[in-house]
Amino acid sequence: MDRREFTASLVAGGCAGMCVDLTLFPLDTIKTRLQSQQGFYKAGGFRGIYAGVPSAAIGSFPNAAAFFVTYESTKSFFTSYSSTNLAPITHMLAASLGEIVACLIRVPTEVVKQRTQASPSLNTYRVLLNTLQEEGFRGLYRGYGSTVLREIPFSLVQFPLWEYLKAMWWRRQGGRLDSWQAALCGALAGGVAAFVTTPLDVAKTWIMLAKAGTSTASGNIPTVLYEVWKSRGIPGLFAGSIPRVTFISMGGFIFLGAYEKVRRTLL
């Protein structure tokens, strides 16, 4: 990847991240409160729907930029395989590495954002201070493992499917694909991936919102999934799936569409 491509991926990824996170933030708040252990209404219901938005605004640009720089760099490194049957594996590997890097930025902002969403009486700054005072810097990375384990399966579905749909549409149109068509491919790929990985998202939410020192806060995903299933059954494992699928389908349209548009403009 040359310098121009690096800059294009960095800027396009950051712009796409800010567009989707700020546009669809209310849906994300509703999803978090539906998944909260204390229940939707006790977590705030429809009140303070933009609680936690400063954290999302601060983290969205560097988070998405880090993902796409890693994703495109990995694809570029394995470019000799991109036109063969190994292309989906290249996309899976690129997406997985992108998520691992991006989560170093995403998780602290996600912890603060979700705790603010579930406690709308507190502002972002107060939640950040409380987390640092009670748990130290490590508290900001509570749920890092569960987030990575949620994001990697998600990306293993979304990005190879997105690339496949784009390639298929590109071939059918004789080598042409508009940004809005790439956005539609992103919406479909994102919706499928979102539904399949909802149980992992529920586990991540429980871990991030749990009180320090509890068994849930330890971050053992199989244990948390079993706890959710035992107390709430299958519906509990898929709590928030409708707003999650809606959010990520719309997000996939905006995120991947904006990324393609900005990147093509810069290149």
TrEMBL record:
Q: Is Transcription regulation found in the keyword set?
A: no
Q: Which reaction does it catalyse?
A: S-adenosyl-L-homocysteine(out) + S-adenosyl-L-methionine(in) = S-adenosyl-L-homocysteine(in) + S-adenosyl-L-methionine(out)
Q: Where in the cell is it found?
A: Mitochondrion inner membrane
How does the record classify its membrane topology?
Multi-pass membrane protein
Q: Which InterPro entries match?
A: MCP_dom_sf, MCP_transmembrane
Transport keyword on record: yes
Q: Which GO terms describe its cellular component?
A: mitochondrial inner membrane
User: What are the UniProt keywords, alphabetically?
Assistant: Membrane, Mitochondrion, Mitochondrion inner membrane, Repeat, Transmembrane, Transmembrane helix, Transport
Among Pfam families, the record links this protein to:
Mito_carr (PF00153)
Q: Which SUPFAM superfamilies does the entry link to?
A: Mitochondrial carrier
Q: Which domain of life is it from?
A: Eukaryota
What is the recorded function of this protein according to its Swiss-Prot or TrEMBL entry?
Answer: Mitochondrial S-adenosyl-L-methionine/S-adenosyl-L-homocysteine antiporter. Mediates the exchange of cytosolic S-adenosyl-L-methionine, the predominant methyl-group donor for macromolecule methylation processes, for mitochondrial S-adenosylhomocysteine(SAH), a by-product of methylation reactions.
Q: Which family does it belong to?
A: Belongs to the mitochondrial carrier (TC 2.A.29) family.
Protein's name in the database:
Mitochondrial S-adenosylmethionine carrier protein
What is the native source organism of this protein? Cirrhinus molitorella
